[in-house]
Design brief:
about 450 residues, alpha+beta, five-stranded mixed sheet, four-stranded antiparallel sheet, 14 helices, about 35% helix
């Protein structure tokens, strides 16, 4: 919805011949420009006026533009890591497409505008003195409350398979912990040396931080992998993380990372980044520490302090790998890292309830089809998969139901989803009726007309 608001606002602007843009992330929507003072005044004024009188009649056309753009609010691997950690809520929604831009009700856009896009929820960032004539004609409003930290759905260390392009790792902790920050920087450099330069399996080690509440969030590492090498890359990623948390780093490694951080902080080009950090802290009620303060704190981190911070975060580590990948990953004590399934592991289909199966012809020719079961009882849905895992979504934990004629896809807060689709279960009309009766209409939406059939 915020992406649609951003497009509608930017679509009102005339042709401008200076640098300008807008972007939507997990936590902020930004409108940016660079130019002469009078150009900055014009751009900011136009954007603010647009947000106060958004051309909602253009929603249908802009929805098509959004579908063509295909943007996401987070890297797909990071999105899946967040969904696993927090469930299908808050930042955990980053992994999901939802109803698609063409199914967003105009009322939802109006609600988003009223809640977020006003003067009480905005921060202005300037890299020069305020230009003459600057006005920000935004509607008035109160800043939404942001005091609470988003609750963690799963905190323990585990690995799981998902439809992602490459392996990734998430560590939960205090985003202001300088020791953990430096430990992750050292880890990223080790991975670059090992996975890329020694083994030639990967090109990039991506890092990100995700804010979920005052001081709390995720630090993620995402490695791309050469075709067919996902398992090896995942194993190296995990093994290097465990080794660093167990054995620590050298003084030289830590000094090298500090030198890089110092160079970045003292580069004059870092000014816009620092201003954005200060703006974000203002919006979300945090305490901004300037570059000198942060650098002074970082220089007091010891190698053992960084090791201990990483060892603590390792207890929360989530490793995601592409579907079909079976890495051999072990905890520091040598025991296998638990594999997660959305059913919780070891869950069985209930004996009671109505059972649905794929068509007879499919079962005759496919062993996978013979293993699939859908069970519907008065509390919710269960689905047994060919690999023996079981998904379960209770009706009171449904966050969305996608409808497509006689088919339904039910999404649970626990990140399980169950496809009650006519191709797979041709006699599932009673199951569809049970879903429609149990799930509020406000949680049901038609499938996007822009989405290809899969």
């Amino acid at each position: 919805m915020t992406h649609l608001v951003e497009h509608l606002a930017m679509g009102t602007l005339p042709r401008l011949h200076h640098e300008h843009n807008a972007s939507v992330g997990l936590t902020t929507t930004e409108f940016t420009c660079s130019g002469r003072p009078e150009q900055v005044v014009e751009f900011l004024g136009l954007v603010c006026r647009a947000l106060g009188a958004l051309p909602l009649e253009r929603i249908e056309r802009e929805a098509g533009v959004l579908a063509a753009e295909g943007g996401m609010s987070a890297d797909p691997v990071t999105g899946e890591l967040l969904s696993h950690r927090y469930g299908v809520q808050g930042v955990g929604l980053a992994a999901y497409q939802g109803p698609g831009p063409d199914r967003i009700p105009v009322e939802a856009v109006r609600e988003t505008l009223a809640r977020h896009f006003h003067a009480g929820n905005a921060v202005l960032v300037l890299t020069g003195p305020p230009p003459v004539g600057l006005r920000l004609p935004l509607p008035s409003g109160e800043r939404p409350p942001r005091g609470a930290t988003q609750p963690v759905l799963r905190g323990g260390a585990a690995w799981y398979q998902e439809n992602v392009p490459s392996p990734g790792l998430a560590l939960h902790g205090d985003l202001d912990d300088d020791a953990l920050f430096l430990a992750v920087e050292v880890l990223a450099n080790r991975l670059r040396e090992t996975v890329r330069h020694q083994h030639g399996l990967s090109y990039d080690v991506g890092r990100d931080t995700v804010f979920v509440g005052p001081g709390q969030g995720e630090r993620t590492l995402v490695l791309d992998a050469r075709e067919g090498q996902d398992q090896r890359v995942a194993e190296l990623l995990w093994a290097e993380t465990v080794r660093l948390a167990r054995d620590g780093m050298s003084e030289q490694e830590l000094a090298e990372e500090l030198a890089g951080v110092r160079e970045a902080f003292q580069d004059p080009r870092s000014t816009p980044f620092e201003l954005r950090e200060a703006a974000a802290e203002s919006l979300f009620g945090g305490d901004y520490r300037d570059a000198d303060t942060r650098l002074d704190s970082l220089t007091r981190v010891t190698p053992d302090g960084a090791r201990q911070a990483l060892a603590q975060a390792l207890r929360t580590a989530v490793l995601v790998v592409p579907c079909g990948t079976e890495p051999d990953v072990r905890q520091p004590d040598g025991t296998p890292l638990p594999k997660y399934s959305c059913g919780g592991g070891g869950q069985r289909l209930p004996a009671a309830g109505r059972t649905f199966r794929p068509p007879l012809l499919a079962r005759l020719f496919s062993s996978n089809a013979r293993r699939i079961r859908l069970v519907v009882d008065e509390a919710g849905l269960w689905m047994g998969h060919p690999d023996g895992t079981v998904c379960h979504v209770r009706y009171d934990e449904v966050v969305g139901v996608e409808t497509d004629g006689p088919s339904r896809v039910v999404f649970g807060r626990n990140s399980c989803f169950i496809p009650v689709v006519s191709d797979l279960f041709p006699d599932a009309a009673p199951a569809v009726a049970a879903i429609d009766a149990a799930v509020p209409e406000s949680l049901r939406y038609p499938v996007s007309a822009f989405r290809p059939t899969e």
